[in-house]
């Protein structure tokens, strides 16, 4: 019986972009257009000094995170506008650790 040895190191760090998307959309009743949502997320990340890679790279990452959250059923997308659903707070990294 052969034992498999893990040679990779995997470290799960908090995802600041997803956390800020969750923080912005939680409790909002209206749908936000992507550009407005991104501006809010970008400002919050700058305040936390958690911006790296430039604004355009961050815009692409935020877009990807939104699409993943929509696929998981945590965000409602209507045309190009987004609204958080009741299950959205589960995507926050504080909830993932529990």
Nutshell version of this structure?
The protein has helices spanning about 15-25, 35-45, 55-70, 95; strands at about 30-35, 75-80, 80-85.
Describe this entry's structure for a reader.
The protein has 98 residues and is mainly alpha-helical. The chain has one domain: Winged helix-like DNA-binding domain superfamily/Winged helix DNA-binding domain (Arc Repressor Mutant, subunit A, Orthogonal Bundle). Helices cover 46% and strands 10% of the residues. The chain is built from four helices and three strands, in the order αβααββα. The chain has helices at residues 16-25, 34-47, 55-71, 93-96; strands spanning 32-33, 75-78, 81-84. Strands 1-3-2 form a three-stranded antiparallel sheet. Helix 1 (16-25) packs across helix 2 (34-47). The longest helix is centred in the middle third of the chain and has 17 residues, at 55-71. The protein is globular and about 55 Å long.
Write the layout of secondary structure elements.
Elements: H1 16-25, E1 32-33, H2 34-47, H3 55-71, E2 75-78, E3 81-84, H4 93-96
Antiparallel strand pairs: 1-3, 2-3
Helix pairs in contact: 1-2
How much of the sequence is in beta strands? 5-15%
Determine the N-to-C terminus distance.
35 Å
Structural class category: mainly alpha
Instruction: Describe the main β-sheet briefly.
Output: 3 strands, antiparallel
CATH topology: Arc Repressor Mutant, subunit A
Q: What is the number of beta strands?
A: 3
> Which segments are poorly predicted (pLDDT under 50) over 5 or more consecutive residues?
none
Widest beta sheet: strand line-up = 1-3-2
CATH architecture name: Orthogonal Bundle
| Shape annotation | globular
């Amino acid at each position: 019986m052969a034992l498999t040895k893990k040679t990779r190191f995997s470290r799960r760090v908090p995802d600041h972009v997803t956390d800020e998307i969750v923080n912005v959309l939680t409790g909002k009743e209206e749908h936000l257009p992507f550009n407005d949502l991104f501006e809010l997320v970008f400002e919050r990340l700058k305040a936390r000094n958690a911006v790296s890679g430039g604004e355009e790279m961050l815009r692409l990452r935020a877009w990807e995170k939104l699409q993943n959250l929509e696929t998981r059923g945590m965000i409602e997308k209507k045309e190009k506008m987004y609204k958080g659903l009741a299950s959205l707070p589960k995507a926050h990294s504080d909830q993932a650790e529990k």
